Structures are given as C-alpha cells and as structure tokens.
Amino acid sequence: MTDAKHIAAMTEAEAAIALAGLAKQLAEANAAYHTDDAPVIDDATYDALKQQNAAIEARFPNLKRSDSPSDQVGAPISEGFGKVTHAQRMMSLDNAFTDEDIVEFAARIRKFLGLLDSSRLDFTAEPKIDGLSLSLRYENGQLVQAATRGDGAVGENVTANARTISDIPEFCKDAPEIMEVRGEVYMSHDDFQTLNVRQNKNGDKQFANPRNAAAGSLRQLDANITKSRPLRFFAYSWGELSHSLGKTQKEAIKRLKYLGFSTNPLTIGCSDTAELLAHYRDIEAKRATLGYDIDGVVYKVNDLGLQARLGFRSTTPRWAIAHKFPAEIAHTFIEAIEIQVGRTGALSPVARLKPVTVGGVVVSNATLHNEDYIAGRDGKGQPIRGGRDIRVGDWVEIYRAGDVIPKVRDVDVSKRGPDSQAYTFPKICPECGSDAVREEGDSVRRCTGGLICPAQAVEKLKHFVSRAAFDIEGLGSKQVEAFFNDDQLSIREPADIFSLATRDAANNSKLKNRDGWGDKSAENLFAAIEEKRRIPLNRLIFALGIRHVGENSANLLANHFANWPAFETILTGAQNGTGTEWDELMSIDGVGSVMAAALVNSFHQSNSRSSIDRLVAELEVIPLSRADTTGSPVAGLTVVFTGSLEQMTRAEAKATAETLGAKVAGSVSAKTDLLVAGPGAGSKAKKAADLGVKVIDEAEWLALIGRNT
Fold first, then answer.
1. Collapsing DSSP states into helix, strand and coil, what is residue 480?
2. Within a 10 A sphere around the Cβ of 114, how many other Cβ atoms?
3. Are 304 and 248 in contact (CB under 8 A)?
4. 687 is catalytic
5. pLDDT per position as a tens digit, 561-601
6. What are the structural domains, with CATH classification, of the chain?
7. Which of 128, 250, 532, 654 is an active site residue?
8. Which of 467, 461, 460, 507 is nearest to 480 (CA)?
9. Does the reported pTM lie above 0.85?
10. Contacts of 522 (CB under 8 A, 6+ apart)
11. Which of 616, 614, 669 is CA-nearest to residue 639?
C-alpha cells in the first residue's frame, strides 16, 4: 500500500497513474464481490485501497476521475435478473478503524450541527452483519418487490427468491402505505456447515464462507434453489416511506420488529463515544459465539431529525459510520516458506503453516507479501513488528482479514531455536533461473525471464497474439493455452508459432485431425501466421511484453529508432544508469528510468534475449515509414519543449515537430539542438543556457516552422 509520506511526495503525473490503477483494481474487486459473489481481495485490503484512493484525491482534487471509487456503491447488476431502480439510493457506509476515528466522527457531527461539547448527542450501536444488502418494498402492507443493492441506484429483482425467506413477512399489518425496509440477508454458521456438507454429498461446489453462500443462494435464477437454502434476514434501515416509523432510530427499529421483522437484539442506545466504544468491545468479545458473521459495529445518530439535517455525501450518510473489527487472530508456526511466481513475474512468498482453525476455517497458508515484510521492514526501510523478521520454524500470530487471505501479524522470537536462520529471499527465479530484479520504488521482486518463464509464459503468449500486438487470426487465448500444453505441437515461446506449420508437416498427428480443427481451419491458421511474419516495428516492440512498455510507449520507441537494428543496437549496448546508449534512451520524450531499465534488463538476460533473437530471425520487421521532411527547417534536430504553451497544447507541439522530422526529447542534454521555452520554464531553461543550447519562445518556434501566430 502507498503510505501517507509517499502520497505527500507524489507528482500530479504519479497521482493520475495511481488513481487510474486504483479505479481499475477496485472496480474489479467490486464486481467480484457484489456481482460474482467471489471476492478476489480481502476486506482489509479493499478498505486500505479505498483509503489510499481517498487520500490521493484529497491531495489532488482536480484529478478525481469520473469513475472514482469514492463515488461508487456496490457494482453493476448481473444480466440474469431484471433491473429495479431504487426509489431512494442505497448508500454505503464510511469505515472507521480506531477509537480516534470514532471520536472524530462524533466531533464532525457536532461541528456540522453547531452543537456544544456539553450538548447531549445520542447514537445507536448495532452489529454490522456480513451478508448481502436487500431492499423490500411494501404497498398497503403487502410485499411487492425485493431488490439487491446493485450499484446503489439500480439493483436486481429477486422478489420471488426473497419470498422464500421465513424472516421476511409477506404482509405487514398497520404498515405505512408505502414502506421500503432494508437489511441484510445472511446465513448462520450452523446452517452454513450443514449446507456445505450437503453440497459435498451431492458433488456440488462448496461455499468459501457464509457471506458467499448467502449471496449465491439469494441470487439464484431458480427460486426453488433459494427456498432450499437456510437464509435469514435482519432489518435495520428503510428507504421510501409514506409515513415515518418513529422520531428516532431506536423507535423505528422497534416499529420494524412490531411489524414482523427480525431485528438484532444487540442494537442499543448510547449517549456518548465512551458508551459506543464499550459496546464495540462487548460485541467484539461475543463475536465468536454469535452464530453468524459480523465484521464491525455500525453507529448511527439516534434522532431522525438530526439525521435529516446531516444528510448525505455522494455515497455515504454523514450520520452513520461502520467501526470495523481487526481481523481474527490465531497462533501457529511456519513449516516452510515457498516462493510462487505470478503471471506478471512477481515473486510472492507464502508461509506454509501448521494448520490452525481461525474463525471456523482451517488455515494452512499465509501471505508474506514481499522480501521487506519478511525482513521486518516496510517499503521505505522503516521497521515493522519492531524489526522482527520472519523465519522458517517461527511461532507467529496470524490474522484473517475479511476471512479471505491470512497474513502474519507478529513473531514470537522467544520461541526461536538456537539453529534458527534468517530467510534469504531468492534473486533467481525458481521457475526458469532468470534474474529476479527489484526496480527502484517497487516493493516486489520480479522474474525477468518473461516469455521463457513457465509461470509467465501462457499470459505472455496471450499478450503476444493480442489485437494490438501480432493479432494472428485463429490464434487467440483459448488456442494459445491448448498449444502450450500440446506435447507434439507445443508453443512455449513466440518463435514456436512461426515453426508450427513446419512441425505440423513432420508430425504424424496432424492439426487438421484434432478436435476443433479441420483441413480448412488448419490451413487458415498457417496462412494467418505466415502473413504476420512481416510486422511493423511498433507492434513487435509492444508484443514482447516488456514491463512498463505499453502500446503508446512502443509507438514512441518505434518513432525514435525507426528500425529494429537501431533499436536492438542501443539496447544491446546500454547499461543501466550510465553510458551514451542509456542517455539516448532517457532522451526520448515519454521514456523514464523505470521503463529504460526494464528495456535494458530484457535484452541483457541471456534466456529472454535468446528468445527475442529466435523470434526476430523468423520475421521481417517493417521499418517505420517517415513523412517526407525535405525542406523542413527542423528536420533532424532534437527539440525539447518546456513551460506553458499558449498557441497549442504540448502534445500538439510535439506531434507537429515529429511530423516535420524533428526528434522530441523530454530532457535537455548536449545532444539537444533547440529548446522551445514558454512561460514558467525552469530548470530545463537553465540547463540549456549552461550547455549553450539555443532557446526560443513559442512565437519564434511558430515562425520557424511557418505557422501563423
């Protein structure tokens, strides 16, 4: 996670990149959790990512994205259900993690309402059920509609399924004419265990935890399946009402109970934050004995009039907050530390534990994050856990954040044996033997083997044949996986693709005779592969799948070098951080030290370089065609733009210069011919003066290239 110091030091460009990554990661997590009922990250990690996003947005409010996670609730609904537009948006809650957060929550409310510290401010406190949010609409006392939260505005119509839940009344006597009751569908621990036994007996998939079981059961397209599942419902809130349920939160909850709904008996009133925190401690102590999953306590301002005055932010009410529990804890010892290599080449350490039950689930593995975490320090080199490292044989305190991925919290060094040795993190990939490097500013060590690393190969090959890369018709992700695992026509690296037809001709088991293939389809595939032997330089560079080199970066590199020999010569001769070849890489506008290092490393690893050489031997790389710049006053010049331009954007100025045959660099060096300086030019203008580089303003630049100002 990015810490506060890192965020404080961010540039706008870094912040924009970080926000884009967080938006993508959180959107995927939301869809997995809310739409697919299959979480991909634990609750604690999700909360930390949301906090990180909010902190960056607070520092750079102008960079807040239109798809900001701060403005989203839930996730889009599944296409299998009808849509229901909520009469009143279903909101989420702000999270709190410390006692100080709760004190601040109360202080914010007092400040907003103009209340003195001596003025009484009542709250309610209730367990936060870990289930699936549901909204029930009653008209004249009759249940007419049930909908999931969805994205907060539009949910899924699960009316038929909700009618099968015994805790949900079909009719409410003396109810308001219009009444939307909101609450949580959940499954008890006992019912969850019974269900999983039944699933196993029937050969069906078992559920990971009660929340997934409840959500998956409610969101069945066949209501009879839902009926067979032991679902429960707690009511704790409401949406549209034709008449109020009471003057306070407590009165309204009492009225819901009178109307036939199950309400949580642990909901109480509190007159100050001390009472809130005392109830939090009490519920936390009872957590393991409740018989259902909770992940915190929700505090709400009791007076509904004050709730109305406080109102809402974009996705959360100002008058409520969820005080989350720390993850559940247990103690065991580490039997081994193993390294797993992910599809991006990341080396991820995993602790193999003596199995222990945590929160009703048997845990035998725990993530160790990265080498810094094992060594007892954070990404900035500062000590964590008091600087205590993690070793094989250590007794450790583990915790399960959100009941998904166990983590090691602390180490009991008093139980270490005399033969205990510090763990040495590998610098060689255990899968392929390539160097495993850690880039500056990165917390993860990664294998540089790329296409030759078995752990990465399939995903790298899928990237190689993707639309923006080689785009070979008939060779998509499904076919790549099949060929990768084929004993006779194996494709393990890109060069293998171009020998496929030759190997097929020599093979007794022809491709055309295999399932899913025929004479025509095999012939078409070989023709499509042959057609792609001629490939533009930019597509080849992108297809190599070098980390940090995306489609736009590949275009920049191709535009600068124009042909493969020039590109290959520079990368072959370049040394990280030094030399004329390195300087040339760094002079390319849009190429920084991280990307340059990734390029150099990929060409200096013997295995990956051999793979690249074998591929290029099969190809005719098409040089970049350049426009005729005869007569251009800037053809062949290296130009740098700095400061603010007023007649055109920086991007337009760069594109124009390149069209006229100039090379646009991002930094001033001895090779720079011309610096175009607008208002606000700083260090680049000074460096140009020191080096004797000619400096002109925007008007002079436009005059030079024949543009009217």
1. helix
2. 8
3. yes
4. no
5. 989 999 999 999 999 989 999 988 988 878 888 899 889 98
6. 4-72 (1.10.287.610), 95-324 (3.30.470.30), 328-415 (2.40.50.140), 450-625 (1.10.150.20), 638-704 (3.40.50.10190)
7. 128
8. 461
9. no
10. 504, 510, 511, 512
11. 669
